Hints:
Layout: E1 12-16, H1 21-31, E2 38-42, E3 48-52, E4 60-64, H2 71-87, E5 92-97, H3 116-127, E6 131-135, E7 150-153, H4 156-164, E8 172-176, H5 182-192, E9 196-203, E10 211-217, E11 224-232, H6 236-247, E12 252-260, H7 266-272, E13 277-281, E14 295-298, H8 301-312, H9 318-324
Parallel strand pairs: 1-4, 4-5, 5-6, 6-7, 8-9, 8-11, 11-12, 12-13, 13-14
Antiparallel strand pairs: 2-3, 9-10
Amino acid sequence: MTGIKTTGQKKMMFFSGRAHPSLAEEVAGQLGVGVVPTKAFDFANGEIYVRFQESARGADCFLMQSHTAPINKWIMEQLIMVDALKRASARSITVIVPFYGYARQDKKHRGREPISARLIADLLKTAGADRILTIDLHTDQIQGFFDGPVDHLFALPVLTDYVGGKVDRSKLTVVSPDAGRVRVADRWCDRLGAPLAIVHKRRDPDVANQVTVHEVVGDVRGRVCVLVDDMVDTGGTICAAADALFEGGAEDVIVAATHGVLSGPAADRLKNSKVSEFIFTNTLPTPSEVDVDKITVLSMAPTIARAVREVFEDGSVTSLFDEQA
């Protein structure tokens, strides 16, 4: 005999950073496992220390961290945790990133700009990540930045089921807030059997988060419009688009977005907007300073848990994509 045979079974371990522990606990509950106890703290100068309280040797490890504010701190913590798992002899490391930081910087618009979304992928790979599982990337091309499998999940079924269950579909119009979201809005139209409208906008290239809305393409008069987007950050784009729809005669406007970043003036803009409801998922925690009664948060934990189980059991994550297409 020239070797040793083992009869061991595969072992899954689920880890979470400190950015969004409530989502991690929910996903772990869906999987029927516990979140691995982790000792993590900041040194006085801001450096992060992490140590896992259980052995990860030979385990398939799933590490969740959503890139919420302060975004750079939580990205760094995730990188440190990945490095710790690599050095702990984990069999495989899948990073779960419900909201992928720097995704808006996915290409160069002008000279001397970075492609920061690629940098994040490179950092995760260098740290030791074998696979990325994420939800509703800003653009699909980001999947190609990572040298390994990327499981791109969608919030579309969760959001459309909610909206379709509470709105008269005969009066519903799906609206893309810009040309870049038309493909996603088309998929909403297919699922809800609703017509499409587009808000044409122009950004000021020298002023961040400033948008000038020009016109609405499509019939929205007397319609209930659902504005769909991947994220709402300061709320400027989406609220300006909603104003344009009301000026075009819309009866009501609902906003549905996967990621509720809600930074800066977002709370005031959402509160003062004529939009009747803002629907987000829990890929990001709702900032404590955002206390707006028009916000509805839907859970992505079941979707994430199903994808994790498919990865661990060598199943087909594509089957989830097919259902969500």
